[in-house]
Amino acid sequence: MSLFKDDTGKTEKPTPTKLNEAGDKGTVPLSREFVTAGTLLVVTIALMTTGHWLTDALKQSLEFGLTVDPQMHPIMGMATPRDAGESSLVSAQQQLLLSYGNIVWPFLWIIGIALVATILTGYGQIGFKIRKEALKIRIEKLNPVNNLNRLFSFSSVFKTIISALKLAVLGGVLYIVLQGRMPIFAQMYENESFAESLTIMIETAFLILMWIAVIVLLISLADVAWQRFDHTKKLMMSKHEVDDERKRTEGDPAVKARLRSAAIQIMRQRMMESIPKADVIITNPTHYSVALRYDRSKDPAPRVVAKGLDDLALKIRELAKDNDVPLMEDPPLARALYRAVKVDQEIPEKFYKAVAAVLSHVFRLKEQVA
Predict the structure, then answer these.
(1) Tens digit of pLDDT for each residue in 208-227?
(2) What are the DSSP calls for 284-303, one per residue?
(3) Which residues on adjacent β-strands are paired with residue 283?
(4) Looking at 32-46, 139-153, 255-269, which range is the least confident one?
(5) DSSP letter, residue 347
(6) What are the structural domains of the chain?
């Protein structure tokens, strides 16, 4: 039994056309769990490799703000309260802007990396394409009945399981990492500066983030597989729908057959009209007939104006006799021309010598009769 079979008669996998139409409406197999996990992992790696820029800026700002030193904070060493009062606001603003300036660029760098990672992990799953239909507001999404159905669907249950796993991972990683580093935390009071303690806390945070990112990324791969399976299952089609789509995209087979038959009839009619103007009919003599015309003033090479097999070949010969067009028996040449040259097409160069011999003989006969 097919994995995608359901009880509604939709047993066929969605066609490329159905998938494209769904994608244009914004229905795509996007795993947001993978986007979150991938972005978290990339940002964590960026922080661990280039994060010293940010940590150094934070250390400097904290040391500057927590250090009581008149030389570092000139406002504290002023002689009179009045002088201090007049310049305290300006000095505080300058110091605040200086701290922001040290921190803002590292933060913007990390935010930029997070943005790029989000775009790559998102569009990497579904491909980059502007979906105008997805931007439209759909009233049916506001229907509480539909929302209740989605709330109690198996997809919601699966998402709940994924969320529970992530919560368990978070709790487990926090417990294991913090328990392992507890002796280091217990000795932090012996550190000579706050910067040393801050370094320990940042390293611990990076370690926690890395473990969480890697494990959550592995869990999100299950969500990627589920999203693709669920997306395919929702777009399943019945055999009737597949047939209707084929007719819509490729045309009704019955109509195509009638058009093809009409085209053949038109082509035959044109061939029959061209036979009286032909210079020679090369025959098999029973199975093949090929009509050639050569106007030296117009055609660079002889041209096939009609050809036929069996019954059609017989009709070509009969029509040629009625219009006094010469018939020349050359079975190999007739078969070769029939297979290699289309109607209203000049003969290839490889046939020049054989056809020239036939036409020369025909033209000599015409001159003798004349």
Answers:
(1) 888 888 888 888 888 888 88
(2) -SSSEEEEEE--TTT-SS-E
(3) 289, 329
(4) 139-153
(5) P
(6) 28-234 (no CATH), 270-369 (3.40.1690.10)
